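Reviewers asked in the last cycle whether our approach scales beyond single polypeptides. To address this, we selected a multi-component target totalling 220 residues and predicted its structure end to end. The input consisted of the following lines:
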Amino acid sequence: MMRSQNLDTTFAALADPTRRAILARLASGEASVMELAKPFSMSQPAISKHLKVLERAGLISRGRDAQRRPCRIEAKPLAAANEWLERYREIWEESFQRLDALLDEMKRKE
Amino acid sequence: MMRSQNLDTTFAALADPTRRAILARLASGEASVMELAKPFSMSQPAISKHLKVLERAGLISRGRDAQRRPCRIEAKPLAAANEWLERYREIWEESFQRLDALLDEMKRKE
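The resulting structure, written as structure tokens, was:
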């Protein structure tokens, strides 16, 4: 139950390109809100809203330094999301194999 | 851009426990709306709404049989979501290793 709610908030947090880009930036190291806002040409309040969603989903944590409160990525919820997706690996690999077989057959017919 | 929009709709579709349960059910084979509605103790219109979200995200397709219109899972968007998550594997594995090291140290101190 708990687990399922976690997946809800994780997937909802990931359903936004800015939030995914913030995680990509934080994957290379901590950053303050100001540092994060710059490349996105977004206001600090707009970035702060996205950070709150990421923080509630446990995908980032904020440092204690009152001035900067640097953000860092917390990848554990991503591991849980990945684990859920992995159950379907067999299905997508089969469908890619069917596609490959179809393309091969088309080439042979040409 | 296209790719990013796809990830938006995929992750948004996965952010719901009923939709994830529908995919889990369809992983073991096609099913009609009626067959899907039964175990969820949900009305058919409620299930149909969820199916529309999944269909728009490309996560299921509907058969042509006018009566049953069986649903089948389409796992390709899950492969794309998995690919996005895999970029962070190094980060979550490192954090699990740090946790293991910490637990080992606590045990030694006891």
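The two ends of chain A are 54 Å apart (CA to CA). We regard this as preliminary and will revisit it once experimental data from Aim 1 are available.
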